[in-house]
TrEMBL record:
<protein>
    <submittedName>
        <fullName>Pyridoxamine 5'-phosphate oxidase family protein</fullName>
    </submittedName>
</protein>
<dbReference type="InterPro" id="IPR011576">
    <property type="entry name" value="Pyridox_Oxase_N"/>
</dbReference>
<feature type="domain" description="Pyridoxamine 5'-phosphate oxidase N-terminal">
    <location>
        <begin position="11"/>
        <end position="92"/>
    </location>
</feature>
<dbReference type="InterPro" id="IPR012349">
    <property type="entry name" value="Split_barrel_FMN-bd"/>
</dbReference>
<dbReference type="Pfam" id="PF01243">
    <property type="entry name" value="PNPOx_N"/>
</dbReference>
Length: 97
């Protein structure tokens, strides 16, 4: 699959799903993954809502580097595709980002 086809496929996966798996780590590097509902702003910015007390929020406070996977969890094993991303997260507060 060429780069253009991969981009089209990746955008379709992001557009076709509403949950992503968010991977974080605490200050000791211990991993934590969380399924979260997301809204994408284009294909490079993702927003989700989490309780301020949630493990992933506390982890992001000390280690903002995260991993994200978006995939259709209803697909047959071995037949699926996913989008994998590395990102830096931050907390937004207030009515406007």
């Amino acid at each position: 699959m060429d780069t253009g086809d991969l981009e089209v496929a990746g955008r379709a996966i992001i557009d076709g799903n509403r949950f992503m798996t968010l991977g974080t780590a605490n200050s000791e590097g211990e991993p934590w993954v969380s399924p979260v509902f997301y809204v994408a702003d284009g294909y490079s910015t993702f927003y989700w809502i989490s309780s301020p007390e949630a493990t992933q929020v506390r982890n992001i406070g000390v280690r903002p580097q995260i991993g994200i996977v978006v995939f259709n969890s209803q697909q047959e094993p071995g037949s699926g595709e996913a989008v994998y991303m590395a990102a830096t997260a931050c907390e937004l507060t207030g009515a406007e980002p």
